[in-house]
Amino acid sequence: MMETIKGFKDDFLWGGATAANQIEGAFDEDGKGLSAADFVEYIPKEQRTKDNHMEVTSDVIKKALAGEYSGRFPKREGIDFYHTYKEDIKLFAEMGFTAFRLSIHWSRIFPNGYDAEPNEAGLKHYDEVFKELRKYNIEPVVTLSHYETPYGLIEKYNGWVGRECIEHFVTYAETVFNRYKGQVKYWITFNEINIINISPFTGGGVLSDLEENPEEAAYQALHHQFVASSLATKKLKEIDPEAQMGCMLARMLSYPNTCHPEDVRKAQVDNQLNLMYTDVHARGEYPNFFKRHLAENNITIQMEDGDLAVLKQYPVDYISFSYYMTLLSSAAPEGEVTAGNLMNSLKNPYLESSDWGWQIDPLGLRTLLNDMWDRYQKPLFIVENGLGAYDKVEEGRIHDSYRIDYLKRHIEQMKEAVKDGVDLMGYLAWGPIDLVSMSTSEMSKRYGFIYVDKDDDGRGTGERIRKDSFDWYKEVIATNGENL
Ligand code: BGP
């Protein structure tokens, strides 16, 4: 009888994921410069769709810098993790985390992005954070840029449209690889690298209103990020061969709206265009279907000699991704379009949605894990998954059974995928502690196992309260995913 896989491997990484701009606050402390993320919350509410915020434009930048918005600029105080990290990491350790994803705020290290010297106070801060994690044997999983392009690079080059960003990013990467050598084993270059083609400002600090051809500018910026990611991987291998480099995709699995061959083909195209990003990162070359897509849309990417060779020579070691929803693809869209996701997918009648319209699909996770493993045969890592919800405090408790149900159903399917043979490194729940939502810039879309007493206007005591899901997740980790 052939041996079959029974469950998660013993060194499976369990924990949670965050981003500096959504958790730290201290937006201008210890020499930090402004970053793209500091402007996102000033997009006028009427311009926002339910969850997919519209782009920042130059006039929003001007008004923000001129202090024309009410209250402190920028408002983004996160949950003050910059000062509370010791207490919060202690709570993560109480749940038994073996890994914790965070981003280094690039503009803490190079305030303008192009500074000749790094900011020692910024480097020191993350020394302290990594030291605290090490105290509890929690592996840091570190994102170099989580939508956090320094504002100086936006002002000087219009963000990643400028090829100069490659060199500045590699200098930043080299600085932190040297500083934290031996402390960080898992690195990620760009968070959800595909978002740059949905939201160029968020993904790459690109002000589309300054560009003749915004779509082409976004693909040009993306190319610069691909090259920068490969050059950073090259540096990492030189500085710390033990460390591993990962890429990170917002994986949006698309289903055909009907069994009509045209809908099936449309779903294939949508999935190919989503996986193109990990194709480049993991296989080291642009796939032909993408070259055809660019040609048919009259998009030209300017490349320099050596770019393609660098991509080929320095692919990533592992593939990480976020998973929240699945979409429907239709060659002839009719029927209700759900406002609830970045791609304005049609509503799937077989799926429930979150309060923000994200279509909840646990089985989709097993499906896409099998697809990605078959496609790449590289270790996979779920570095974001979770349910944003309106939580209520009732006599000092938060009974978030809906969140436990969501996570339980996703972890069940993840386990099935592992039994199917998928090489899965770990599972990091997004927002293990309530933090600022990326798309709404509000606190009320809560994800945490830990409640933070802070409302959308920044009012509250900041008190941390364990939700019911806190003890549930602690048991999941203690039993390596057995007791759900
Ligand atoms: C992903 C981002 C995270 C986080 C998550 C939840 O796209 O990588 O930063 O924000 O989405 O989204 P939201 O915060 O909009 O609910």
From TrEMBL:
Record protein name field: Glycoside hydrolase family 1 protein
Pfam family, one: Glyco_hydro_1
InterPro entries found in the cross-reference section: GH (IPR017853), GH_1_N_CS (IPR033132), Glyco_hydro_1 (IPR001360), Glyco_hydro_1_AS (IPR018120)
GO molecular function, one term: hydrolase activity
Top-level taxonomic group: Bacteria
Protein family per UniProt: Belongs to the glycosyl hydrolase 1 family.
Protein species of origin: Macrococcus equipercicus
Entry keyword set: Glycosidase, Hydrolase
Catalytic residues of the enzyme: 384 (nucleophile)
